[in-house]
Amino acid sequence: MNLLPLALNLAADGIPPLPLRAGKLPFGNCPTCTANACGGRPNMKTPGPCQCPDVCHGWAAATTDTHTLTSRPWVTAWRRAAAVAYHPGGAGVTVVDLDNPTAVAWAAQTLPATRTVATTRGEHWIYQGTMQSLNAVRDGVDIKSTMSYARWLGPGTGTMTALPDVVRALAVKEPPAIQSPPQAVTVPALADGGACRHRTPAYLERGIAMAEQRITEAREAVHATIYRTFLAVLSTHGRCGCLTDTHVARLFTAAQAKGESPRHCTDAWTNARTRLGL
Prior knowledge:
Layout: H1 4-12, E1 17-21, E2 25-26, H2 66-69, H3 72-80, E3 83-86, E4 93-98, H4 101-110, E5 115-118, E6 123-128, E7 134-138, E8 141-144, E9 150-151, E10 161-162, H5 165-168, H6 201-216, H7 222-237, H8 245-257, H9 262-276
Parallel strand pairs: 6-10
Antiparallel strand pairs: 1-2, 1-3, 3-9, 4-6, 4-8, 5-6, 7-8
């Protein structure tokens, strides 16, 4: 089966294709490029002088250049190929790869609707915009965008929407959650029993209001923004004895308005306190 016509159609639409061999894997590097001894393709993370005309370097081989796609080594590869893949990041999109029915059900409840493509075991949800790729962000869910490839399984159905914060946040790594039940937040007072070093309640009020605003205005990496905001509040006010449950509740309310669960808020707060030794 010659897949070159499909590849050329994709390239004409701005989607960089590459051939996959049996097993849904890219063709291996040629002897010159083994272990990236050549320095790598110019569009790889570590640019190098490689001018190899062969189908090398996995996702970085994907291209919309018709001269390359129709060159002799590539034509041979297309004739041997078992499938066509593409570089989502090069096409300006992100693929949320849902590998089982449970993952699909999670996406239907959690992610905004967008273009979907049926796969052998699940679905690809495709969003406009790019981000880092990462496997196993949760059970049965991979993110394929920059420096990755995805199988081309057709144009899909539905209208593609902008990449949402909830997907970007899946790639944000935080300290491991401390598995403890939610509990009232207590803040140690000064060792000498003195008054708050900030001397005026207005300073604390301004700090809490700014933290609420920072959380509310987060447009991406919401999980990480909330954790960093909690960390900043605690680093400034956590040892004063002036931070109350009412203040913490305001921060949690702002976080939950951005879609965070009460459990995640508690974990993020606990992790921030642990990091600061509170």
